[in-house]
Design brief:
Blueprint lengths: L2 E15 L2 E10 L5 E4 L2 E3 L6 H13 L6 E15 L8 E13 L12 H4 L2 E8 H4 L8 H7 L5
Parallel strand pairs: 1-6
Antiparallel strand pairs: 1-2, 1-4, 2-3, 2-7, 5-6
Length: about 150
């Protein structure tokens, strides 16, 4: 069985609105056509660092100005494997994902990036979630748990 190793970075993007902390998630259609919320993320390119990847991907996928994004903290590294049935030969993907806490200081609303129907057709929008909403939101990984452990940095 063919194996592929990949590295990606994710960002938990938050902003403060009065006394509330809000976390930005992108909305996309899953394989069943249902809406689900995900973190902005993407693959490392060339000799790019995990931190640089997180900022670039957040800006690309949300349309937020990278100058208004600040990495507050590296949170964790997640390792997982899956069978990529959507790729020729269904290889096993071994993946390292670096998760960062990122503060957004701007006032603009996101405009999720769409590169064309074949690649990004499932992105349908975004939502800023309050902490109480994250408890019951169907998102992976456990974003609420990661944030709860890092509230003192926000």
């Amino acid at each position: 069985m063919n194996r592929i190793f990949e590295k990606s970075s994710w960002g938990i993007v938050y902003r403060k609105r009065s006394k509330d902390i809000e976390v930005l998630l992108l909305c996309r259609k899953n394989g069943k056509g249902e809406n689900e919320y995900v973190l902005p993320k993407g693959h490392m390119e060339g000799d790019e660092t995990a931190k640089d990847t997180a900022l670039r991907e957040i800006s690309e996928e949300t349309g937020l100005d990278a100058r208004e994004l600040e990495v507050i903290k590296f949170m964790t590294k997640i390792n997982y494997s899956f069978v990529a049935t959507h790729k020729e030969g269904s290889p096993v993907i071994d993946k390292d994902v670096y998760l960062f806490l990122v503060k957004y200081s701007g006032d603009s609303e996101p405009t999720p990036f769409r590169w064309g129907v074949e690649k990004w057709e499932r992105f349908t929008g975004f939502k800023w979630f309050r902490m109480d909403e994250l408890k019951t939101a169907n998102v992976k990984p456990d974003i609420y748990g990661f944030i709860r452990k890092n509230l003192q940095y926000m």
